[in-house]
Amino acid sequence: MGDNQSFDPANVTDIARQLARKPFVPQPNDLPDFFSNLNFDQYVSIKSLRTPIWGTEGRGIAVEPLHRGFVFNNAVDLYLVEDGTVRRIGFDPSKFDYGRLTPPEKLGDIGFSGFKLIATPSEGPPFDFAIVQGATFFRAIAKGQTFGATARALTLKPAEAKGEEFPAFRAFWLERPAVGSNGITIHAVLDSESTTGAVRMTFRPGDMTIIDVETTLFPRVNLEHVGLGGIGSTYFYGPNDRRNADDMRPAVYESSGLQMLNGKGEWLWRPLHNPETLQISAFVDNAPRGFGLLQRERSYEAFQDDDRRLERRPSLWVEPLGDWAQGSVQLLEIPTDAEINQNILTYWRPKAPMAAGSEVPFAYRQYWCWSPPERPPLATVATTRVGRGSGGRRRRFAVDFSGDMLGDTLPADLKPVLTVGPGTVQNVKLWPYPERKTVRVAFELDPGNENACEMRLILEAGGKPISETWLYRWTP
C-alpha cells in the first residue's frame, strides 16, 4: 500500500501472508559507512528540524521519524494514513541538524530507522512516551518516567546454540489520531528467515501507558521456540547480588524482579540476578493471566544515581488476551560486566510448535506503569538480601515481605514455609516489624557441593498463604 492508495488493515495482513510464501530476502546493507560508524554520542547529536507530524493539529499524539545510524542500520518504510489514504514519508537530509557532523552529499532517500511518539496534551508540555526502533523492539513509559525496559513484538530462538534469530519490522502504517484523542493505531509487517507477521498496535499514553498488540504469524518453517510478549531489561547488581559492585552506587538495575500470575491464580515473585553463567528458568503454566518485569524500588536512596534515575524506570506488565494454552514463562539471566547491556529477557513460550504454512494469531495488553493495575491481594516481597554465611559455601538470606496485613495485629500462627532442592536451609527466623508493616524471614542456605539450588518461600497463617510466593535460584 503506497502513496495515494486506500488503506485497509486487511491488506497489511495479506502483505505478510504473501511475503511468507516467498524465500526470505535479507535487507540490503545500503547505509553509508559514515552513519553506521557513528558512536552513540554522535548519533544522538542528530536532531530533527521538522515539526513533529500532527504536532500542531491538537490530536493528542505526534510522530517524529528517526534517522538511521549507529546500531540502527536497517531501514523501515513509514506511511501515514490520513482520511483513509496512504502517504509515504520520504527522507530529506535538510530536515535534520547534524551539528558538528558532516554527512555525505547526495544521500538520496535512505529511509528511517523507526519513529518516536510524542504526547501533546491540551494542558501541560508535550513529552516523548514511546520509541519504535531496531528489529521488532519498542519502548514506552508512563508520564514522569525515563526509558528502561524494552518490549519485543516477536522473539525467536533465544540462547540456542545456533544463535538467536532477530525478526525485523519492514514497514509501518500510522493512522492519524482523531482530534483530541488519546490513542494512535499503528500497523506493521515483520519479516525474518523463519516467519513473517502482521502486527497491529494501539498506543494510549498517560499516567499508565497502555499498548494493545495483535499479531498474526505466518511461519515459513516449523517454529519450535517462539517467544510472545517478550521483555528485555537490565540487572547489574543489587542487594542480593554484588558480584560487580565496585561502584559508588548501592545498586544498578532497571527491573528488580519477574512477577507472574499463573493460570491457577498464584502470585509468584522471582528476584533478578546477574549470574556467573547463563541461567535459563522455565515456569510451566496453562492459560497464564499475566507476567512482567517490575521495578519495585522507587526510592532515590536505593540507587543514588543522579544521571540515570533508575527508580523512575517503568514496570512492564503483560496481560494475555485470549487463551494462551500450555507453555511456560521463560527467564534468561545473562552474565554481564557492563550496565549498558540488557542482560535479562523474559517471554511466554507456547508448548505447541507453530507449523509451517499456518496462520497463528495472538494478542496481549501491555501496561507501562509505576505499578501494574492488578496487584497481589497479599503481602509482597520488598527486598531480597544475600551475603556470606557462617562458613564454607553457606549464604545468608533475608527476605522482607510488606503489606497492610503485617501491621499491628499479626496472626498468632504466622509462619514461613520454606523449601529448597537440592541443598539445605538452617536457622530460619521470622522478624516482625509491625511499625513498617514488614516481616523479615532470615535463613542460611547450605548448598553442599551443588552449583544450583531452587528455593520457594511463602508466609502462611491459618493454613493459607498471606504472601506472594518468593522463588530464587542460587548459583555460585
Automatic annotation (TrEMBL):
A Gene Ontology term for the protein's cellular component: outer membrane-bounded periplasmic space
Domain of life: Bacteria
Protein name: Glucan biosynthesis protein
Gene Ontology biological process terms from the UniProt entry: beta-glucan biosynthetic process
Biological or metabolic pathway of the protein: Glycan metabolism; osmoregulated periplasmic glucan (OPG) biosynthesis
Residue span, Glucan biosynthesis periplasmic MdoG C-terminal domain: 7-474
Any one GO molecular function term: catalytic activity
Compartments, record wording: Periplasm
Key words of the record: Periplasm
Signal sequence interval, chain numbering: none
Organism: Microvirga alba
Record-stated family: Belongs to the OpgD/OpgG family.
